[in-house]
Amino acid sequence: MKRDILTSVIGILLFTLVLGIVYPLFITGVSQVAFPGNANGQKVYVHGKLVGSKIIGQNFADAVTKNGKPEMSAGQPVTTPDVRYFQTRPSATVPADNAAATTFSNLGPNSVATKTELVTNIAAYIAVDKAPNGTPYYPGGLTPGRVPVDAAESSASGIDPQISVRNADIQAYRVAAVRSIPLSTVERLISTYTANRGLAFSGEPAVNVLELNLALDRLQQGS
Amino acid sequence: MSVTGWLTIFLFAGLLTAIAIPFGGYLARVYSGERTFLDPLFRAPERMAYRLVHVDPGHGQDWKQYARSLIIFSVAGWLALYLILRTQTLWNFTGLNPMHYHSATWDVSFNTASSFLTNTNWQYYSGETTMSYFTQMAGLTVQNFLSAGVGIVVAVALIRGIIGRSGKSLGNFWQDMVRTILWVLTPISIVVALVLVWQGSIQNFSHYLSLSGVTGLGQQIGMGPVASQEAIKLLGTNGGGFFNTNSAHPFENPTAFTNFFEMLVVLAIPAALVFQYGRMSGNRRQGYAIYATMMVMFLGAAAVAYVAEAHGSPAQHAAGLHTHVLAGSGGGNLEGKEQRFGIAGSALFDVVSTVTSSGAVNSAIESFTGIGGAVPFANLSASEVIFGGVGTGLYSILLYVLLAVFIGGLMVGRTPEYLGKKIEAREIKLVSLGILITPLTALLATSLATATKAGRASISTAALSPHGGTTPQAFSESFYAYLSQANNNGSAFAGYTGYIQPNAGNVGAHGVTFADLLGGFVMLFARYVPILFALAVAGSLAGKRISPAGLGTMRTDNPTFVFLLIGVIILIGALTFFPALLLGPIVQGLTGHLY
Hints:
The structure holds 2 protein chains of 2 kinds. Chain A has helices at 2-34, 36-39, 112-128, 149-152, 165-179, 183-192, 209-222, and strands spanning 43-46, 49-53, 61-63, 65-66, 69-70, 72-73, 76-77, 79-81, 162-163, 194-195, 206-208. In chain A, 50% of the residues are buried. Chain A contains 7 helices and 11 strands. Chain A is α+β, with helices and mostly antiparallel strands. In chain A, the strands form 5 sheets. Chain A has a 3-stranded antiparallel β-sheet with strand order 9-11-10. In chain A, strands 1-2 form a two-stranded antiparallel sheet. Chain A has a two-stranded antiparallel ribbon with strand order 3-8. By secondary structure, chain B is mainly α. Chain B has 19 helices and 6 strands. Chain B has helices spanning 3-32, 39-52, 63-86, 106-117, 127-130, 133-163, 173-199, 226-235, 256-280, 284-311, 314-319, 342-355, 370-381, 392-412, 425-451, 453-456, 472-486, 513-542, 559-590, and strands spanning 209-212, 218-221, 417-418, 421-422, 499-500, 510-511. A two-stranded antiparallel sheet of chain B has the order 1-2. In chain B, strands 3-4 form a two-stranded antiparallel ribbon. In chain B, strands 5-6 form a two-stranded antiparallel sheet. In chain B, helix 4 packs parallel to helix 18 and helix 15 (425-451) runs antiparallel to helix 17 (472-486). The two termini of chain B are 27 Å apart. At the A-B interface, helix 1, strand 2, strand 3, helix 3 and helix 4 of A face helix 1, helix 3, helix 6, helix 7 and strand 1 of B.
């Protein structure tokens, strides 16, 4: 009994030192040398300024101002989607795409709350597709049945950096029109930033929104 | 549904088997004390460890001594973890608490310490807004290793009891622990962690990033030593995420490739242990029979989950969404799922994580469809024997094997024997208790939680009916919480909560005391009581003489026995849980009605 207690106490201290301190430090050391970009979060800089992480989704929206001040709702700034940019998936975090407090929506399959949320997201997606004069950018206009599921349903992490190819193809019409660039150019960029299935079978093809949007910005600054 | 989706499931099963067979052979050599290729590396540290902790590794322990060492070691581990959780700010001098997070309250810490000690990793806290890097490393990562080790050594002790020919010794607990850490968990964790960083996981000690995004909106990004913890979280079937959204977070599971890789890591040890058992028992077909039992049930669960999720949910259909596969869109129920994993990658991950005691999630289980959500329920109802947790899966299914042998023996009217050892009244009593403790704990705790006001406080508002009153979703949330904790799984219908996170993240999470305490006790009870019964069975069998198999001996390595074993597992699960399952996921799967 006494022997077991002594062994346990020394054992826990020893294991804490080796597995809790030495092991993470060792992995950190190797990672920082071998894969420094990844280990530090794949930071993306524009003109020397940090604007995000390549694999963390962000909200491409503008703060709404009212009488010269940012409008607030429930302690968070009110935002409106920036139509020049591809939009990421709906997010359950507060504020949207908060990568320091991630959360699921936890909306159940048979809940009224889920339907309400989906109807709101679908309406928002269709509204963004409408030009100021009310005509849709997408040929023939969008209906709820045409909205891709990833555009209406919130992601798991709340910071999903990617959207489906279909979602990107639909938004391409708007982005091309607003930016006055040929649709084919936008479509080419979409395919450049589409990650294929892992090992050609795992998962779904997905378009990285941050990379795509920055490429669009670069394209227009360059010309 | 798509061809690539089905391909993912079947390639996964094939690849897992291909890895598990040689890995099982390696494990058998490790626990039989035979030479392995890692010996030159670890012999010296092993000897040093025994000297430091004052242990004679050659000293064999009977089941009571083995159990006593295990329990005392666990108590010490619990106290150390609780202390670290409660003194988080004391360790700020290390620089490993850049966000200056305060400790969570005592009840959350009680739940968390019990959770990580028992390999459950139920999380009544949000990692990136509660825990310092120091706590994640020195507290949680350490128990990720040790709780996995405890599970494995119990399985090894039970194997030795079943095959033992000489007296009462089950081996030496300390030797088994040290060898598990050195020869199995540490080297593989190092490789897995580096693969994850190579794919995009992070591993640093930075302050959280604070930046203005492309449109000028502010964004904060959580950082930390993620990959090192992620590796053992998966390998040890622990499942407690560094971040709140677990393996859905791009820093924990960055690509579709890592998603597939992570699933293999989760099942590697539980699957290999089965083949290890076959080798150590001297009859590999015994291992194949158990593996076949597990694989049949695993593939069944994966197929049901995939079909259900691809079909979509009633809420989706009511909102007018189309859920079939279109060009450029995988369709299905994508609420709470990541684009890069898709429906198949999410459904399969969910099955992998609920058949084992992992409980890591890459999608929100609460948002699964009724039938898709019934799959994790069913997996948990089978008491973690379909592969199961590292070690726990094997020792649990061996209890079921003994029970099936007993029932088979009754049917053919012979004294039941397993591998030449007579199964008598004493063993069957211990086996039955070992099997029934977990379901009983889960059901009692669920009734307590749903019948009391304090228990209902944890149910999320989205799950409650807007017209007042309770819903199947609310029942599913509560039931899943205690079923998951009793099975030491740790996945959640995550709307069910046991803590309140104040807006300012650095003042510490406050507990919902009832849920924290009930859950904590459920985890401890349903972990250690079955372990004691398993070790008692091992002790009881160890001393028995082996009689040669005769013509009338019931074989336990053929398809008939696999069929019998699957029947026993399903029968016990269904008899125990069917009424409760009807009230929650099954009614949700059968109706298109919204609540």
